[in-house]
Design a protein that fits this description.
alpha/beta; 6-stranded mixed sheet; 7 helices; about 30% helix
């Protein structure tokens, strides 16, 4: 097991904790991380782009002018895709870009993403962050002392004061254990885990 220091909000060591190697220190494969991140981003696409086909454009169906004798091309009606304001040929329509990857692969990728932070010394375990009120300045001071300007904070359960206090700080995101995902772990430079949430992470990934 990997032994990691547990620090307080001032950055001082208060204890140590053992982290399971099969979760926090696995072999990292870039291809697996790439596949899962790609899946996540595809699932986030709105897929709402939409154009009007010829049948969707409002307009008369009468022939614009006679077939012969004008020197122009043979005219269709005003909704023709060849005319300004007409329908669009083969344009986009609402669709879902989401696709699925096996659950075992997603779980493995999550372990790999966490392992990259531990292996690069970018994983911090904090004993607790307690706020009596919603105060951005207090969280900003903690972030400065921990030297975690761009960090993902994993909390245990509903920590409303922490979430609301941190939401206006650029580069900081607070997320419950249930929302932990590969994309956000890799997006932020540091992974800051509250000690109380370690059991939740291990319980989710040990299956």
């Amino acid at each position: 097991m990997a032994v990691v220091d547990v620090i307080n909000v001032t950055g001082d060591k208060v204890s140590q904790v053992d982290l399971a190697d099969d979760i926090f220190n696995v072999t990292v494969k870039g291809s697996v991380l790439h596949d899962v991140v790609k899946m996540q981003l595809a699932s986030r696409r709105s897929g709402t782009a939409c154009v009007k086909n010829r049948s969707d454009v409002k307009g008369s169906t009468r022939k614009l002018f006679r077939q012969k004798g004008t020197g122009n091309a043979r005219p269709g009606n005003i909704t023709s895709p060849l005319r300004r304001g007409g329908g669009v040929i083969f344009g986009p329509h609402p669709k879902s870009w989401a696709y699925s990857i096996p659950k075992k692969v997603r779980r493995l990728a999550l372990k790999m993403a966490i392992s990259t932070k531990l292996q690069n010394n970018n994983l911090l375990v904090v004993d607790k962050i307690e706020l009596d009120e919603i105060k951005t300045k207090a969280v900003a001071a903690i972030i400065t002392k921990l030297d975690a300007a761009k960090a993902l904070i994993i909390s245990d359960g509903d920590n409303t004061n922490l979430e609301l206090s941190a939401r206006n700080i650029p580069g900081i995101k607070v997320m419950p254990t249930e929302g932990l995902n590969v994309y956000d772990i890799l997006k932020y430079d540091k992974l800051l885990i509250l000690e109380s949430s370690l059991k939740g992470i291990e319980g989710r990934l040990s299956a």
